[in-house]
Design a protein that fits this description.
The protein is mainly alpha-helical. Helices cover 57% and strands 11% of the residues. The chain is built from 4 helices and 3 strands; from the N terminus they run αβααββα. It has a 3-stranded antiparallel β-sheet. A hairpin with an 8-residue loop joins strand 2 and strand 3. Helix 1 packs across helix 4 and helix 2 packs across helix 3. It is globular. InterPro entries: Tscrpt_reg_PrtN (IPR020518). This is Pyocin activator PrtN family protein. It holds the Pfam family PyocinActivator.
Length: 84
Amino acid sequence: MSTAFLLMAQYQGRPVIPIEAVAEDHFRMTTPKLLERISRGEIKLPVVRMSDSQKAAKGVHLSDLADYIDAQADKARKEAQALR
């Protein structure tokens, strides 16, 4: 089962997931903390802004989140293999 398919089910097929939901559901941190870590490059996840306004809603495209989760899983598998 693909990560993207599971995320579509979790978020009712929305293409862009609100940043607040991503922060809470996948990172267990506050939204400002997640945005800070993304802006510093510690978490490589593109943030979508729905307009040019600074007050515009922010989110993460479902496919970008799926790619990030899959990359983290691959990284964990490689680390586990190296320990064996």
